[in-house]
Specification:
420 residues; mainly alpha; single chain; globular
Amino acid sequence: MLTDQTYDAAIEAARSEAIFTAGDPAAPVVRFPTFEGIRALCAFGVLAYHAGTFTGVTWGRDASVGGLGPWIQHLNVGVSIFFVLSGFLLFRPFVLAHLGATARPRIRSYLWRRLVRIYPAYWVALFLSTLILDLDLGDWWGHVRFYSLTQIYWGDTVLGGLVQAWTLATEVSFYLFLPVWVLVVCRSGGTVAQRVRQHYAGLAVLYATGLVVRGMLRAGDHSIGYGTLAANCDLFAIGMALAVASAAAQVRGRAPGGLARTVGEQPALAWLAAACCYAGVVSLRYPYGFDPPSVSQEVVREVLFGFVAALVVAPGVFGRQDRGALRRVLRWRPLVGAGIVSYGIYLWHLTVMIELDEPGSWLSSPSFVTLTLATAVIATAIAAVSWFVVERPLLQRVRRRRRPPGPVDEPQPQTPVEQG
């Protein structure tokens, strides 16, 4: 359990991941305090999704758990939310710079922080999981692909190693793509309003590209390619669009209006709308197992997943972050603690689940509920060790090298509160 001292230190180290502008270390910091709670829920949602596949709950409409199989089947929407969060947090400093609020972050520093954030903990998890599960990573070339997170581009490795790491490979490709996007899109001049419109126009193209690519992959009956950035750029584009709206509001010094204002003032309503979109996904009767969906099912599910992610994240971006029961729940200390170590939960949960589901394990033919709960407890404990031993020390070292002591937070009652 996190003590007050370690909790505060962990929060500060987590914030150092994405909140400061490398080009202007003294710039005011804006934090988003509900994001860690969202991360925790997403990590546990993906965990429950995999528990459903292990126990057969999501492999047929007559599955157990009171007919909840179709609802558990799509809890991998947590991955979509992760992508939206990444698009928002990583693009926002660049948008602020383009709109004239801060200096542009240094690309080298940005890439170094990304490398430190994602690779060391992943390398440890992959190495130890290979020993524990006796994973076959192939020859030296297979090892290179798995350890470099490029395995999704070859059919023989796309679902090997840590299976869930395909999303990390997608993230890495976005990390590399973002500076290129910034250099192309963030060069235009004009007023703030004109620059904002240019951003939205570019992101609309990026969003459409993701849907078109995904539809083409499904129409061509391709078995790989769905984990590439091209097939997921619609989700990152949603997060980037939220970043534009948030940055524009900060530069103008006033809260956004329209739908953003409604979402900020009524977060519970936004999450209710997200639940309705999720129900829409369930109603698609998306196939179970490895049966391929139709093109329309593939594209509509992707669109609805994007809506769910946007509606879940947006209340943490807009509105007063100290108001509303939903935000209080997301800022609940145990949930925030789980969010801080959520990367480790994501890395380790399948390794733990496979071990628990082995014949002769102490769970002995676990049910969906017991497998989910046991995996969540053990994976969270391992993730905490990963955080305090591997992730946090490296993040603190990066922060000490790049940011001077004593940053000053600027109180902004009408704009979001950020936490990266």
